[in-house]
Design brief:
By secondary structure, the chain is an alpha/beta fold. 27% of the residues lie in helices and 20% in strands. It binds zinc ion. Zinc ion binds next to loops.
């Protein structure tokens, strides 16, 4: 679509202060429409040259995913500790989605869904060695013809280019990923490398004639929870009992038998990791303001999944589809947005794909499953689905024998109710999310009309996802080096 000619009309038109038109779409507030009009028209100080190039009228877009960040550990989501002052500062001039959920509870599959706008069965990136098929279309690929410079800085093993999520990025910095095998990635601190690479892009590699799409994935809140000073002491209460958090997920000392005082220590260290990352985000905000990019940049901040602390008997993530594994922060600042709003709709991170394209004025592909948060709101009765299909490998401490535990979870939320199906155990769980939002009291399987509807929705969804997958060639296995496999083994993901 030529620049300056607006967008196809399916509603009415609004005129921005620079005189260009933007689509005023269904469900988009007048405030947000005006904000988009201003940002979408590229009225950036000293940026006249941009009007000469493709994409000159588009806003910059910054997408940040924070590893393993639960929504309820963010201040603007009600957390009692001052862990996230800079995320909260962003929320004060953005829209905070109070009920945002990841599509799954682990990194690779979650990011593949964000990038493609597809549910996991459809994009076929389900296991730890999987690679996204070349035939799939990512956000970065769709932004290329719209004139966007596409760059990424990533710091966790699953965002390595070997998994092919780098499709469409012109610059893909995955060097902050911890090299070597074993458990090095869990123990490492990568924020400094991420910060240096982001600064290098913003200050030296950023095009001055094109808008950018910058994706930043921040690994450090991932277990083991070993924050650097001063964050290692900042939130530890005097009553807490220190416990060794190394080798946290596999073979570590933190078990369901940990005392409340020990769990206080574990959670304080998790908070320390988050606070360390939040401090870096504060420096990002300062750099964007210094470079006069803050107003012209849409910022979308979220997490790839949540984290469990034995609410349903497990720790870490990639275990299940309960709320603590899925509920994530989602904060969206559109260009020039100055005021805070809260959106309580049920949102899934597959919605990021069409939302980012909406911000850029680019049409999404025909088969995506997400809905634009700006243009196409869900109604309360629209179902949202979740999926976890993966395998863990464990070693029996008594015999040294390796064994595999497979998990095939599916879940659907609609009408304030949730249905979870765990295939291996043949287990069905129903929850009333209004009366029991933390999913602690499963309802009896009565076979009533509401439960029947959820089962039918889940069955139809599985059939349709398989049909979508059949139209694409899967990406197969990533070409992992021995060190890559060792690293995933150290995290417990492969044998
Ligand atoms: Zn993750």
């Amino acid at each position: 679509m030529p620049d300056g000619q607006g967008f196809p009309v399916d509603g009415l038109w609004a005129t921005g202060r620079s005189g260009c038109r933007v689509r005023c779409v269904r469900g988009l507030s007048l405030t947000m429409a005006v904000v988009l009009a201003a940002g979408g028209c590229g009225d950036r100080a000293g940026d006249a040259s941009r009007s000469q190039s493709p994409g000159a009228s588009k806003p910059n877009i910054l997408l940040i995913t924070v590893e393993s960040l639960r929504a309820d550990h963010v201040g603007s989501y009600g957390y009692h500790r001052p862990v996230t002052p800079h995320i909260d500062a962003l929320a004060r001039q953005a829209t905070r989605y109070s009920r945002a959920h990841a599509v799954t509870s682990w990194t690779l599959t979650s990011h593949a869904s964000m990038f493609t706008g597809l549910y996991p069965t459809a994009h076929q990136v389900l296991g730890p060695k999987d690679r996204l098929g070349d035939a799939y279309t990512t956000i970065a690929e769709l932004l290329a013809p719209a004139g966007y410079q596409r760059a990424a800085v990533v710091s966790g093993p699953y965002l390595s280019r070997k998994h092919n999520l780098n499709q469409g990025f012109g610059l893909y910095v995955d060097s902050p990923i911890t090299p070597g095998g074993d458990k090095a990635a869990a123990k490492d601190i990568t924020n400094a490398k991420v910060e240096a690479a982001v600064n290098d892009f913003l200050r030296h590699k950023r095009s001055t004639s094109r808008p950018f799409f910058l994706f930043v994935y921040v690994w450090d809140p991932h277990y083991d929870y070993i924050p650097p000073p001063p964050f290692d002491r900042r939130f530890v209460p005097e009553s807490a009992e220190p416990i060794d958090v190394t080798d946290y997920e596999i073979g570590g000392t933190v078990t369901e038998k940990a005392t409340p005082a020990q769990m206080d220590y574990v959670i304080a260290q998790y908070d320390g990791e988050i606070a360390c990352t939040d401090a870096m985000l504060g420096r990002f905000w300062a750099t964007l303001k210094e470079l006069e990019l803050w107003d012209s940049t849409a910022i979308l901040l979220t997490a790839d999944h949540g984290e469990s602390f034995f609410e349903h008997g497990t720790k870490g993530h990639k275990n299940d589809l309960y709320v603590e594994s899925l509920h994530v922060p989602l904060i969206v600042k559109t260009p020039n947005q100055k005021t805070a709003t809260v959106d309580d709709r049920l949102v899934n991170l597959i919605d990021l794909h069409p939302t980012i394209l909406e911000l850029a004025g680019v049409e999404p592909g025909p088969t995506i499953h997400g809905r634009s948060l700006l243009a196409d709101p869900r109604s309360a009765s629209d179902p949202v689905f979740f999926e976890l299909e993966t395998s863990w490998y464990f070693t029996r401490q008594t015999t040294g024998e390796k064994y595999k535990k497979s998990q095939h979870w599916r879940a659907v939320v609609a009408d304030g109710r949730k249905l979870i199906h765990q295939e291996e155990d043949g287990r069905w769980e129903f929850y009333d999310l209004v009366a029991d939002p933390s999913e602690q009291s499963p309802l009896a399987a009565t076979g009533g009309e509401g439960q029947q509807r959820l089962r039918a929705l889940l069955a139809d969804w599985q059939t349709s996802m398989k049909a979508v997958a059949a139209t694409y060639e899967a990406g197969g296995e990533a070409d992992l080096a021995p060190d890559d496999v060792k690293r995933l083994r150290g995290l417990g993901y492969v044998k």
